[in-house]
Specification:
Keywords: Coiled coil. The chain is mainly α. It contains 5 helices and no strands. The mean pLDDT is 88.
């Protein structure tokens, strides 16, 4: 593939990743505001929100280094759909479980996106961008691992709360 074609694919991927991270924020921020009975989940979401904000900065730095900018339209569109997805779970009796499933799926989507970006960066000789992409990838893997490792605990707590008649939603 020609160098400019790789560059075009890389820029599109970086813009998509930027919008994806904006979407992640629009999903996590409403969730964390609603959590009351799962403090460990709230704390982890708060931590990952801070990581996500740093990931956005990293992506912006890579784009700036390539004399490019993020796509405001993509950012808006994905943020909107993320907010709607988060809102959709608020009516579920098992909101915390639905959020856990969706967050786990989304983290794995992000992992795939960053692995692809890493491959494109290496193919295009964008070595300066690789460390930023790897940092984001590492944080997404850690969050996905945490969600997987804690799914049984969250589910068990949900069942326990529900059994005693306490609110088990969030």
């Amino acid at each position: 593939m020609a160098t400019d074609q790789i560059r075009d694919v890389f820029i599109a991927g970086l813009r998509n990743a930027h919008a994806m991270e904006k979407q992640a924020l629009s999903i996590m921020k409403p969730q964390v505001k609603r959590i009351e009975t799962y403090p460990e989940v709230a704390a982890k979401l708060e931590q990952h929100i801070a990581e996500t904000e740093r990931q956005i900065v990293r992506l912006e730095d890579v784009l700036t280094g390539l004399n490019e900018d993020h796509s405001t339209l993509k950012d808006f569109a994905l943020s909107f759909t993320g907010a709607m997805a988060a809102l959709g779970h608020t009516v579920a009796d098992d909101e915390i479980l639905k959020n856990s499933f969706a967050n786990y799926a989304f983290e794995n989507f992000e992992i795939a996106a960053y692995r692809s970006l890493q491959t494109i960066a290496e193919a295009g000789g964008y070595g300066a961008a690789v460390s930023a992409i790897e940092a984001n990838l590492s944080e997404e893997k850690a969050m996905a691992r945490w969600l997987e490792d804690n799914l049984v605990g969250v589910t068990t707590r949900f069942l326990s709360l529900r059994e005693v008649g306490e609110t088990a939603k969030v």
